[in-house]
Amino acid sequence: MALYRDEGVVLRTAKLGEADRIITLFTRAHGKVRAVAKGVRRTKSRFGGRLEPFMRVDVLIAEGRSLDVISQAETIAAYASSISTDYDAYMAAGIMAETVDKLLGAEHEPAVDQYRLLIGALHALARQAHPARSIGDSYVLRALALAGWTPRLDSCVVCGERESLTYLSIPAGGVMCAADRTPEARGLNEGERLQLRALLTGDWAALGERPPDSRVTRLVGDWAEYYLERPLRSMRL
Question: Alpha-carbon dihedral of residues 144, 9, 20, 43, nearest 10 degrees?
Fold first, then answer.
């Protein structure tokens, strides 16, 4: 079997048989990869805890007919050890992993910019650089923007007006003025609009030390679910 080496982040795992697991990795050069880690659930597994969600690892993988097989795994960054001890960080990391898993439809298709964004967000979570919900919400908006779904937040999507932007239409792709609002548009105050813009641009100074308003987080989740065309179960929790 052909071998390839790459680095990646463990997104999720699933049991297989009595001792194995299927590991879903987001790798730098090969995109999303699903591979079997044989014997990983045994006490004396050679992989130890290196193939748990949110771990960044260097892996040697053998190509298989249906699923690849992980031959070696070495830790690059143990984000999981810090994230798993903080409930808010763990929830945010779960949302991020589910988002990128659903964004990456096909396997073995590189998405280097998405990979860098995920690494940066996990690193920020692990060192508690900002409130966990701020990091998670910002990641979701920025990951969707990289995929081509950037919300327009500085001018009306209908007329281009830059004042009195008091509505947000997710199907239309951004904010609206009162004169051009459509029936499905939701009311949006100036503080909420500025929070969404700061999350989208990663403006941590504007966001401050408090997490976004709960309504802003709901809007981020609704934006993601609309354009992914699938629910984000982690965010609904």
Answer: -140
Look at residue 236 in the predicted model and tell me its pLDDT: 75
What length does the chain have? 237
The region that residue 128 occupies, defined by phi over 0 for left and psi between -120 and 50 for alpha, beta otherwise, is left
The type of residue at 73 is A
Average pLDDT over residues 55-72: 93
Unique residue bearing structure tokens 């910019």: 113
Report the topology of domain 3-80. OB fold (Dihydrolipoamide Acetyltransferase, E2P) (2.40.50)
Both tokens of 226, joined, read 């609309």
Q: How far apart are CA 157 and CA 103, in angstroms?
A: 25
The whole model's pTM is what? 0.94
Q: Round to whole Å and give the CA distance between 82 and 94.
A: 14
150-199 confidence digits (pLDDT tens):
999 999 999 999 999 999 999 999 999 999 999 999 999 999 999 999 99
Cβ(37)–Cβ(60) below 8 Å: no
DSSP state of 38: T
Rounded to whole angstroms, the Cα distance separating 217 from 137 reads 6
Provide the β-strand partners of residue 4.
61
Q: Where are the domains of the chain?
A: 3-80, 130-236
pLDDT of res. 1: 62
Backbone Cα Rg of the chain: 20
Per-residue model confidence as pLDDT tens digits over 202-219: 999 999 999 999 999 999
- Give residue 192's identity as a one-letter amino acid code: E
